[in-house]
């Protein structure tokens, strides 16, 4: 290791704090953090020049690959104009153009108005606060509760975290947040008492990411939309992960022809280049905020509608057209499906494979079908082993996440699955 790498590691261990990380293990003498320094397409390179496929799209953000010339150019051109200006009290052309393009995906519907923020969590936070404020100032002050789905994940700011269904992350904070009830299905929602007190239902449509890639039953989203509409309950879709092509369509709600009341977008919005989020809202809800000062939505962040972020997002949307991303995606989705079946049949350690478009999970269990002891951290170990075979990804418990940039090609998909297979054998032995 050269002097620069040694310095980088000691800076990290002495001064930084990583997300969702046991810092005592991270900073231990024997742990050598992987320093990523370059990217090109679906490949990432570490400080020593080793190359890896970005198998989880840099935590579910990257869409068209790293170092994409069109997105790079758009950001550089914007940088030469101005990097950032306040969206509080001022406007700029790119934000309007981006909001118009987002509305264009829902043309002819009421989903039209966009409020910008920075991250998935803040996109959700906005939707929750808008929902509550709308109810308070529009003669529905009793509707102040939310319903969410068990094992869901909607982000880490307090409001978003109060919806979080993963106890290990959220239970200690739950009493400080919004009143939320959790259900496992639309049937359970229908059976709840006091639905007239519910402001909104929040769901990750089609597939829950953090819940080990849990795919919802077909038709469920449609049924949820019909029921919430009938009950006057807002449907808040968290498409932070599923948005921008991940499930094979631009937005997951399009699989079942659903238009929500709120649509929360982030991760892939800028192609995975810059932090930026959007909360789209029905025009009739927006209109509930018109009038005097007391009706304004008092919410915003310093970097709201960041000019660089908007430039990247517009470029990313253009790349979808230029590269005909969706046309090219179908054969890749089919290939991924075949490869997943192969790994399931070929390895006795693979208990289940789950897939929705280009989002997949490979669940590992003991050969008798019993889950591994969580303390063994099998999923995590398999992902570390996969690095030697040229793949970076993360597991959720013992489910290996496969969520590459949409730009991945067929050979790279095969490489990715081979790396996982080899890593499973390294950690658990043959079959
Ligand atoms: C990542 C994620 C979030 C949170 O987004 P951040 O940008 O990390 O704040 C919210 N919801 C879902 C479904 C996510 O996958």
UniProtKB/TrEMBL annotation:
It is found in: Cytoplasm. Pathway: Cofactor biosynthesis; biotin biosynthesis; 7,8-diaminononanoate from 8-amino-7-oxononanoate (SAM route): step 1/1. Pfam families: Aminotran_3. CDD domains: OAT_like. InterPro entries: Aminotrans_3, Aminotrans_3_PPA_site, BioA, PyrdxlP-dep_Trfase, PyrdxlP-dep_Trfase_major, PyrdxlP-dep_Trfase_small. Pyridoxal 5'-phosphate binds at residues 120-121, 238, 301-302. Keywords: Aminotransferase, Biotin biosynthesis, Cytoplasm, Pyridoxal phosphate, S-adenosyl-L-methionine, Transferase. The record marks 20 as: Participates in the substrate recognition with KAPA and in a stacking interaction with the adenine ring of SAM. Substrate binds at residues 153, 267, 300, 394. NCBIfam families: bioA (TIGR00508). Homodimer. This is Adenosylmethionine-8-amino-7-oxononanoate aminotransferase. It comes from Rubritalea halochordaticola. The lineage of its organism: Bacteria, Pseudomonadati, Verrucomicrobiota, Verrucomicrobiia, Verrucomicrobiales.
């Amino acid at each position: 290791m050269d002097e620069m790498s040694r310095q980088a590691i000691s800076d990290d261990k002495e001064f930084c704090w990583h997300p969702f990380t046991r810092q005592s293990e991270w900073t231990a003498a024997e742990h050598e953090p992987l320093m990523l320094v370059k990217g090109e397409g679906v490949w990432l390179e570490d400080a020593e020049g080793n190359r890896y496929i970005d198998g989880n799209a840099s935590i579910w953000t990257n869409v068209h690959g790293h170092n994409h010339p069109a997105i790079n150019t758009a950001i550089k051109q914007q940088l030469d104009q101005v990097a950032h200006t306040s969206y509080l009290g001022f406007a700029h052309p790119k934000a309007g153009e981006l909001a118009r393009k987002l509305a264009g995906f829902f043309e002819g519907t009421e989903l039209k108005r966009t409020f910008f923020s920075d991250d998935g969590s803040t996109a959700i936070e906005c939707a929750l606060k808008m929902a509550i404020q709308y109810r308070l100032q529009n003669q529905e002050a009793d509707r102040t509760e939310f319903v969410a789905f068990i094992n869901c994940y909607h982000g880490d700011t307090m409001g978003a975290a109060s919806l979080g269904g993963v106890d290990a992350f959220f239970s200690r904070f739950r009493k400080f947040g919004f009143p939320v009830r959790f259900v496992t299905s639309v049937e359970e929602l229908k059976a709840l008492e006091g639905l007239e007190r519910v402001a909104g239902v929040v769901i990750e449509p089609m597939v829950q990411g953090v819940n080990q890639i849990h795919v919802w039953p077909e038709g469920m989203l449609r049924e949820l939309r019909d029921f919430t509409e009938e009950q006057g309950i807002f449907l808040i879709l968290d498409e932070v992960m599923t948005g921008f092509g991940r499930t094979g369509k631009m937005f997951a709600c399009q699989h079942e022809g659903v238009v929500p009341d709120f649509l929360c977008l982030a991760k892939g919005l800028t192609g995975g280049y810059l932090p930026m989020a959007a909360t789209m809202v029905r025009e009739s809800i927006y209109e509930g905020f018109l009038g005097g000062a007391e009706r304004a939505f008092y919410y915003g962040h310093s970097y709201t509608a960041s000019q660089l972020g908007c430039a990247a997002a517009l470029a990313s949307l253009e790349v979808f057209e230029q590269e005909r991303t969706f046309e090219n995606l179908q054969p890749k989705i089919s290939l991924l499906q075949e490869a997943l079946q192969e790994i399931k049949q070929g390895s006795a350690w693979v208990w289940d494979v789950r897939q929705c478009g280009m989002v997949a999970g490979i669940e590992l269990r003991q050969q008798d079908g019993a889950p591994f002891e969580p303390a063994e951290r099998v999923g995590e170990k398999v992902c570390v082993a996969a690095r030697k075979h040229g793949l970076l990804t993360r597991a959720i418990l013992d489910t290996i996440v496969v969520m590459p940039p949409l730009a991945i090609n067929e050979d790279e998909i095969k490489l990715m699955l081979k790396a996982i297979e080899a890593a499973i054998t390294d950690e658990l032995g043959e079959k």
